[in-house]
Amino acid sequence: MSGRKCLLQCLLSILLMQASGRVIHPAALRCFVYERDTGRAIQGVQVIAIGQKESTGAEPNSAMVTVGPAITDANGECKLDILAGGRWQLLALKEGWTPGRAFRVIDIEAISTAPLVVIPLQRMPCISGRIVDGQERPIGNASVSFRVRGNGIELRGYVKTDTNGNYRIWLGPSACIKVGGRIITNTPQ
């Protein structure tokens, strides 16, 4: 869903809630996403907030709301607007990085400026390669099979090469990949 469409959907939800007599106090969260190992800001991360609206006493605290995504800038920062008070879980997602998350409780009465939420991400190890034919020409749309084992699970799958014959297989945290007879792992020995 595009950011504009999501924003319009959130605004419509707020108008409908206000029309039905429920008062919504808008707030915002500022986010900073950085690389855990280096402290470097990460650009292009999608940050999504998922939360529950505050209980009014007459209603149970059960209405789930999703806001975002907001995309981090070159400084690793973004802002999520139009949040109601309550408990929020922020998810930070970018290809090649382990997902990050943070929890925040927003007290509307205490907010004078948008609070900052810091979310560290860690690079996901990647196995990449290129498939070529006997004349060293790239083979596009070729299947590369893999098997991933870690934390008591095993996953078999495949990826397709791009038009230049390149492929990438992302390892999750604590994973092991067997390529032919070789085992490649990012699990500490």
What are its keywords?
four-stranded antiparallel sheet, mainly beta, 189 residues, elongated, 1 helix, Immunoglobulin-like, 9% helix
Write a structural description:
This protein has 189 residues and is mainly beta. The chain folds into two domains: 3-121, Immunoglobulins (Immunoglobulin-like, Sandwich); 126-185, no CATH class. The protein contains one helix and 13 strands, in the order H-E-E-E-E-E-E-E-E-E-E-E-E-E. The protein has one helix spanning 3-19; strands at 27-35, 46-53, 64-71, 77-83, 86-93, 100-106, 116-121, 126-130, 143-150, 153-160, 166-170, 176-179, 182-185. The strands form four sheets. It has a four-stranded antiparallel sheet with strand order 3-2-5-6. Strands 10-9-12-13 form a four-stranded antiparallel sheet, with no helix packed on it. A hairpin with a 6-residue loop joins strand 5 and strand 6. The longest helix has 17 residues, at 3-19.
In a few lines, what is going on in this structure?
The chain is mainly beta and about 190 residues long. The protein is about 10% helix and about 45% strand.
